[in-house]
Write a structure and sequence with these properties.
Largest sheet: 6 strands, parallel
Strand order of the largest sheet: 3-2-6-7-1-8
Number of strands: 16
Radius of gyration: 24 Å
Number of helices: 20
Helix content: 40-55%
Distance between the termini: 34 Å
């Protein structure tokens, strides 16, 4: 492929030295640019950093010999004492055991909606574990109270008191995790955090940091401390991992910026829609499609008219409903999701149906019984749960377990159903978007989308190569565009 003028300008910025950030839109040839940047510095030691092992291995086959392709985890693992990393093999301590060992007892707290939430020993133990996980993705040297997440329905003053009470236990768990003789097993995040705190020096003349918009505070602090040149490459409008600590390096890094705006994934029709989404996010520079590539946006398709390669959903609950719908029609359906999360929802529903409280998953932990869940699913706030609640009511939990067992491998499926998070970085010829994206009507009657939802929808739209079916959300989407004047 002939380098574009944008790619050549970005390579020139890299060869000039100093930190550089490159804003690369969906499908805009960033891997080609990164390879070109490595080739432009043949006598320098390069390091390409990816979040995913498969991506790093694929890059190693494409990049020149002067550039190693690694993941952050592989760098950290190789620099950490085996006395610590061997704890990865320790059995994971159940959260209720940890709470009992730390002397944490159950408690009940009122919520802002008039209900009372029970914090069992298991739930409190899990909050301690989650608090340490958040600390491990941060730049802080010690766990802080704000690393502990408390249900937003709890009054803020009570939530702060609970954080202060649990913080010493998070600190203890961190000490145990990094003590070779400690009883705690560790996750991979622990040795990465220990590596960051050791102030590592990465042996490279230049570092190419891919998907920079998904970086957490920890990784940014490591890269900022390097004496080597760092090239940050990413798309700020594809930042969809805030829940795991991503802070968006594209906003935080002060460096000369270049752009890759020409997408090689789709044609003008899809590019035009994606550009409207960008304008909705106050981005004036559009994404440009390939004039020679035929693409279309379908706004009003009848059921069954479009035969997609992928159906993209916002929520796991919708995903399972779409899988059920496909299997009932005799389709071979694959699913890109964590099955254990769906199993946890089914388990929780089963307990509520039996008249028992459940504390996991979080989506069901506030409800006293299944009737409460049904009523909530009928409300505007609970509409995401509606497809799955309906399935459970009509077919029962046993049917859903059978459903999960019937999911086909992707290579043998007619199509795949995926959450948008699991679809990131992928592409398909024909993509259909589900109807579970969270549109919101303001008090003045305007139709809007929350900021994180705009990014999620942008990522979903830009997975399509030839046909993008937005029939399920077109009315709401057009209202958002109209009311925002884009």
């Amino acid at each position: 492929m002939r380098p574009t003028e944008e790619q050549q300008e970005a390579v020139a910025a890299v060869t000039a030295g100093g930190p550089v950030k490159v804003k690369a839109y969906a499908g805009a040839g960033k891997t080609t640019f990164l390879r070109m940047a490595s080739e432009a510095r043949p006598r320098s030691r390069g390091l390409y950093l990816a979040f995913n092992k498969d991506i790093a291995q694929e890059a190693q086959r494409k990049f020149p010999s002067n550039t190693r392709c690694r993941t952050v985890h592989s760098l950290a693992f190789g620099s950490t004492s085996p006395d610590i990393t061997r704890k990865l093999r320790y059995p994971v301590e159940p959260s209720h055991n940890l709470a009992i060992r730390y002397g944490i007892g159950p408690l009940r707290l009122p919520t802002t909606i008039g209900k009372t939430v029970e914090f069992t020993t298991a739930k409190l133990g899990r909050m301690v574990m989650d608090g340490m996980a958040r600390f491990c993705s941060s730049a802080q040297a010690e766990p802080q109270a704000w690393h502990i997440s408390v249900d937003p329905l709890i009054d803020e003053e009570l939530a702060d008191a609970l954080r202060d009470e649990l913080l010493p236990h998070v600190q203890t768990l961190w000490r145990e995790s990094t003590d070779p003789n400690g009883v705690a097993s560790i996750s991979h995040a622990v040795y990465v955090k220990a590596w960051q705190l050791s102030r590592p020096r990465i042996p490279a003349d230049f570092i190419l940091f891919d998907e920079a918009q998904d970086a957490d505070g920890l990784m940014l602090s490591v890269l900022r401390a390097q004496s080597s040149q760092v090239v940050y490459v990413g798309d700020p409008y594809q930042k969809i991992y805030e829940w795991r600590g991503a802070v968006n390096a594209m906003d935080h890094i002060k460096a000369p910026e270049k752009g890759l705006t020409e997408s090689f994934r789709f044609g003008p029709a899809i590019a035009s829609l994606a550009s409207r989404m960008l304008r909705l996010m106050d981005e004036e520079v559009p994404v440009r499609g390939q004039a020679a590539m035929a693409s279309r946006v379908v706004r009003h398709a009848a059921p069954g008219e479009i035969r997609p390669n992928a159906i993209l959903c916002r929520k796991n609950t919708t995903l399972l409903a779409k899988v059920a719908e496909g299997l009932q029609r005799g389709h071979k359906v694959a699913a890109r999701t964590k099955k254990e999360e769906l199993v946890a929802f089914i388990d929780g529903a089963e307990r509520l149906l039996a008249g028992q409280r459940t504390h996991y998953p979080a989506a069901l932990s506030l409800f006293e019984n299944w009737l409460d869940v049904q009523e909530y699913a009928e409300s505007f706030a609970g509409r995401d749960l509606q497809p799955l609640v309906k399935l459970i009511d009509e077919q029962g939990p046993t049917y859903l377990r059978q459903l999960l067992a019937a999911i086909a491998p992707e290579e043998a499926a007619d199509y795949v159903v995926s959450t948008v998070h699991k679809a990131k970085g992928l592409e398909w010829p024909i993509v259909t978007l589900a109807d579970d994206f969270r549109f919101r009507r303001e008090d003045d009657g305007r139709e809007t989308l929350p900021t994180d939802e705009k990014r999620l929808l942008y990522v979903a739209m830009t997975r399509a190569q030839g046909t993008l079916d937005i029939s399920a959300i077109d009315r709401s989407l057009q209202a958002v565009f109209r009311d925002a004047g884009v």
